[in-house]
Each structure stands twice: as structure tokens, then as C-alpha cells.
Amino acid sequence: MPNALIAGMIGLIFSWPGIIHFSAYLSDYVFHLLNITFASIALFSPLPSKDDLKGGVLSTMIYMNFILGIQILVGSLATILFFKRLHPTFGILMGIGYAAGPGQAYAIGSSLEQYGLTKGGNIGIIFGSIGFLWAYFAGMALIHWGIRKRKATFISSLDGVPDDVWTGILKRKEIAGYKTTADEAIDSLAIQLSFIGLIYLITIFLIGKITSLFPSLEVLWGLTFAFTVFIGAIVRYLLEGVKMMNIVDSGLQRRIAGTSTDYLIVAALCSIQLPVVRAYITPIIIIALLGGIATLFFSIWLAPRIWDHTFERMVICFGVLTGTMSSGIMLGRIVDPLHRSRAVVDYACGMIPGLLFFWVPLFIVVYMLILKESILIYLIIVAIFTFASFLMWRIFGIWTGKNWNDL
């Protein structure tokens, strides 16, 4: 388990009895750290080329969309069928918390509070935190199963996993990034942070203008992270257009994203409120359990039918779509310590277009339908989105039709 997750749990345990008192603005830190993370990701994640899309990028992107649709459907149907007294959007936060993480779930849950979802932000954080348990415990169970069944491509036992994966301490130092500016002018880390600040500033300005002109779109603040990805992609495109992309260092941007993600996880866990857990303990457990089982089942069933390096891709994507990007990468380092497959690269390349062209439009449509209380239409739209995602594997000719026995 990563240090950030352990630290968050320690903070949570000591905060509930009042031994530690955190800032009342702790959940706001989650919101801002999330947006910083995605602004950085947009800068170091290039859009895939046509050649990339012919490989695992497209299939990984479709998988992300399909599993998100399944998670939202499972959460929504469970809420409507079993917990009718709850706001119908309660179960959506399970899907968002699993697929996108506690930060996004908090942002979207908070934006829905004004429309009747009581304590939506905290509920989102709770589901996102439970997702980490699925990522690491179910993820490790998957790894043990794959090694025992000889489905792993690069390791035959956990003895082959580098010690630094278990200890967290590198035996040999690795390069974290490169300087791109002269110290006499500006420190390289400062210029990397300034790009993130610029993206975030433009994002806040843009959403502020939209919501001032159309007050009914106030919920767009819950999608601030998606806007940072969109603005970040534009900034990267402009920098490439004027031949100045060399100023941005991908290594340093990854370190910034990783740092903000670590602090985000700690802040998210420490901001969970005990009264909210007590009030919703039964629906949280049942919906979280159904969502985790559905994610695990479809991941195992789909993997051999849509990928090469089947096992490695399945482990990484399962970790991402129950925890966060760092969860998937950590599990990936266990099964593919030298990154000999393209699993991590294909996920990174597929994430940006997946967010821009699928997740954001879906969330906006869902928002609009929820505000109009058109729950049935909303469920139909999500079902169509999920089914269309499934069909895309066949439309693009990347459905292999294999099963685990064929590998």
C-alpha cells in the first residue's frame, strides 16, 4: 500500500475521536490538488497519433469508457431499486469515485449538494476511498491468480519483483526530470509550476464567465478538473505550434502530478466525516460491494478479448478504475517492472481523449438530465453510452474473441 494511503488512514483514525483536528478547509484542498494534478497530466500526456490508436490505446480508451458506464449504471440502479429514500444521484458517486478517484467524486458530489444530494462531497470521498481497497487488495489477488495460472508475461513469481516496489526506496537514484531554463533567468521547477498556474487560472476564469452568464450551469464547477485537461491540451498544442514545447519537462510535470496526487489522497481520507459514514453505512457498503464485483468481473471477462499483453493491461486498468492513476502504475510495476509492455503508455495516451470526447460530454448530459429530474432518460442515456462503447471494439476490429484458455 502506498504511503499516502497509509498516512490518510492514520489521519482518519486519529481525527474521528478528536485526537487530531484538521482544517475545516481540508476538503477544499482535495478540489484544488485534483485540478493541479490534471493540469500537469495534460502537459505531459501527448494526444495519441493515428499509429498509436491502431494499437492498445484505442482499446484501453474504450475499456475506460465501458467500465465507467457499468459502474454508474450499477450504482444508479442499486440506489433506485434498494434505497429509494436516497437522492437518485447517490450511486453515481460510486462510479465516479472508483473510475476517477476521490478528488473528482468530491468535486462532482459537492456540486450536486445544492440539488438535494446531502453531504454529496463527503459521500464521493468515501466511495473513492473504498475504491483504493478494491485496487490494492483485489488487485494483489488478481496478480497472485495471474502468476499462479501462468498468465503473466514477464514474471513467474513475486520473487522477481524488484525490492524497491515493496520497500518504496530506490536502491539506485533515478532521474526525475531535466532543467529546461537557466537558473539565472528562472528555476526550471518554477516555470513548470507557472504553466500549471496559467492553465488553472484560465480554467477558473472560463467557468466563472460561463456560470455568470448561465447560472443554471453552476454545476460545471464540479467538472473543473475536466476543463483543466481541455485547457491544458490547448496550451500544449500551442506550445508545440510555436516550437516551445522543449520548455516543458515531462519528468518534472510527472513529479508535480505525483506529489499533488499523494497529498490529495491524504487530504481526501482525512476529510471523511464519521457522522456521514454512520448515516449511510448500509447503502455505502452494498453499492460499493456491487460496484467492485461488477468492475472485477467485467475486467477479467474482457481482458483476453480486447488486448495483447492481456494480464498486464488488465491489472493496470483495474487499479486505475478502482483507485487512481498511481494505483494502476504501482500494480503495473509489480507485473511489468521494466515496462516492457505498452500498458502504462497506452493508458496515458488514451486518458486525455477519453476524458475530452467521452467522459466530459457524458457528465454534462447526466447533469442536465438530473437537474430536470429526468432519471429514466438519464439511465437510458448511460445505458446507450455503455452499449455503444462495447460495440466500438467490434466496429474498429479490435475484438479478439479469445478467452483465458486461449492464452
UniProtKB/TrEMBL annotation:
Name by which UniProt lists this protein: Sodium:glutamate symporter
Organism: Methanoliparum thermophilum
Entry keywords, A to Z: Membrane, Transmembrane, Transmembrane helix
Any one GO cellular component localisation term in the record: membrane
BP GO annotations: L-glutamate transmembrane transport
Alphabetical list of InterPro entries matching this protein: GltS (IPR004445)
Superkingdom as given in the UniProt entry: Archaea
Transmembrane helix among keywords: yes
GO molecular function, one term: glutamate:sodium symporter activity
Transmembrane segments: 6-26, 33-49, 61-83, 90-109, 121-143, 189-207, 219-239, 260-277, 283-303, 315-335, 347-369, 376-396
